[in-house]
Write a structure and sequence with these properties.
Elements lengths: L1 H38 L2 H25 L6 H36 L2 H5 L5 H41 L7 H43 L20
Length: 231
């Protein structure tokens, strides 16, 4: 009888220990996915300086063009072609940036099913809150990326138009207005993306604290590039 009781107690202890190990493992898995998602955004971060430099380069070319008269049309065509080349380089950088964010999102989504396995209600609730904010961040980036690519498309069209000597000034003015409106959407989308990034970083720290995950923070995830000013 005593032996059977001891076996029952041992079985209960095993269940408790197994549950504890499972909980710790789930937290570790979530941590691994979260930090890998950050690492996968390295390529995104690396594009920022290059994109800003290319923005400045194109802006300088545009400034040179508008200072020229029609008697220097050959120079206008030359600078317009250079501007298009600069925009194409920026388009390539934006593509690499998006690939990085997409890879990060795919990795991050791996925690969705793991969150349900967290035993503590407050930890699980915080993890769900963190998950929702990060998914909103990815959605904000998608809108930012679409707005930015649309602006690049409009800019290329502008420099193609500038190579047409018979292009009407009114049509050019309308197109430049469209570019400015497009870049305002970029700035607005960029603000939302940056705000979501800040919110997520704060929630991730709160989650780590509640989950008892000891992490040393050297720096937050950098914000996205600042939006481009319109012509």
């Amino acid at each position: 009888m005593i032996r059977k009781k001891a076996i029952v107690i041992l079985a209960i202890l095993c269940i408790i220990l197994l549950s504890a190990c499972t909980g710790a493992s789930t937290k570790d898995e979530i941590y691994d996915h979260l930090e890998k998602a950050v690492t996968l955004e390295d390529a995104f971060e690396k594009q920022q300086d290059s994109i800003v430099e290319l923005e400045k380069e194109e802006q300088q070319l545009y400034s040179q063009i508008i200072d020229l008269g029609m008697d220097e049309f050959d120079k206008i065509k030359q600078l317009s072609k250079q501007a298009i080349e600069s925009i194409e380089k920026r388009t390539d950088k934006i593509k690499l940036e998006k690939e990085s964010i997409d890879a990060s999102k795919e990795e991050f989504q791996e925690i969705k099913e793991l969150i349900a396995d967290l035993e503590e209600d407050k930890v699980r609730k915080k993890a769900n809150e963190m998950y929702d904010v990060m998914m909103n961040r990815y959605e904000a980036y998608e809108k930012l990326n679409n707005a930015y690519n649309n602006s690049l498309k409009l800019e290329k069209e502008l420099y193609t138009m500038l190579q047409d000597k018979d292009m009407k000034q009114e049509k050019l003015t309308d197109h430049i207005s469209n570019i400015n409106e497009s870049y305002q959407k970029v700035l607005d989308a960029n603000d939302k993306f940056n705000a979501s990034t800040t919110d997520y970083n704060a929630l991730k720290k709160e989650f780590y604290d509640l989950a008892g995950i000891d992490v040393k923070y050297e720096a937050d995830v950098p914000d996205s590039k600042g939006g481009k000013q319109g012509e």
